[in-house]
Design goal:
Elements: E1 3-8, H1 11-22, E2 29-35, E3 49-55, H2 63-77, H3 96-112, E4 119-125, E5 128-134, H4 138-142, H5 147-163, E6 169-174, H6 177-199, E7 203-204, H7 210-220, E8 226-231, E9 238-243
Parallel strand pairs: 5-6
Antiparallel strand pairs: 1-3, 2-3, 4-5, 7-9, 8-9
Helix pairs in contact: 3-5, 6-7
């Protein structure tokens, strides 16, 4: 039985992180809220949400139920026999609704930010869906160091997996920000690694999302003179570099 405990800024944020780690949809797990998030007062008393997520095990059905279920599934994906010279098909399940609902959600957020000209296109590759945002005010959706874009991406993934029949990995991009950010991180990684060697001590980055930490790990994987590792808990988890001994 797969089970993990996850923390997050909000309950929904913790659920999103847990689903991504387990590679399952919300319908495939049971969720127990251990602690609701607390905003605190002037920065004091802030508490993260904590949940326990358990993957629901599929139990075997009695023989009759198995037969009925199998028959039902076959009907869903096969053609119905011809009737009176006409051929009818039972609709198959697709992710089109999930993608459209995700676009609608992003549009609603944009309108709340007074962005009326947002255009969204997408590209799907297996379970991964990339959404591309275009607007004269798209910088507002990116935010400082991509923080707004990253938060919107997490929410968009929750919406996508609410409607999808299988797990979907969502990525949002605007004005080629992701590629430009990757180049910036790779350059920063080399500078920080050189600093660690020069000073002989450890250096640490500011907190960043897991995929950005991964970019730095990969960029420095070729260097044998330093070690890299992560410390802390999300969303304040950060990467550390120190000279290899």
């Amino acid at each position: 039985m797969k089970q993990i405990t996850q923390t997050g800024l909000t309950v929904e944020n913790a659920i999103s992180e847990a689903l991504e780690k387990l590679q399952v949809t919300r319908e495939e797990v049971s969720i127990e809220v251990i602690q609701e998030e607390k905003k605190g007062f002037f920065g004091f008393g802030v508490k993260k949400a904590e949940i326990e997520v358990t993957v629901i095990e599929k139990t075997s059905l009695p023989e009759k139920e198995k037969t009925d279920e199998t028959t039902e599934k076959v009907v869903e994906i096969t053609e119905v026999p011809e009737k009176e010279g006409e051929k009818e098909k039972v609709p198959t399940i697709s992710n089109e609704q999930a993608i459209q609902e995700t676009k609608n959600y992003i549009q609603s957020i944009a309108k709340g930010m007074k962005i009326e000209d947002l255009s969204i296109t997408h590209e799907q590759r297996g379970k991964k869906v990339n959404f591309y945002l275009e607007s004269e005010k798209v910088a507002m959706l990116i935010g400082k160091r991509g923080q707004t874009l990253n938060s919107l991406q997490q929410l968009a993934q929750l919406v996508a997996n609410k409607y999808s029949n299988q797990f979907m990995m969502v990525q949002l991009d605007a004005e080629n920000y992701r590629e430009r950010r990757q180049e910036t991180l790779e350059q920063l990684a080399d500078r920080m690694a050189d600093k660690a060697i020069r000073t002989g001590g450890r250096v640490q980055f500011e907190p960043m999302p897991s995929y950005e930490r991964k970019v730095i790990h990969q960029a420095l994987s070729r260097r044998l003179d330093i070690d890299t590792y992560s410390e802390g808990k999300d969303p304040n988890r950060y990467l550390v570099i120190k000279p290899h001994k």
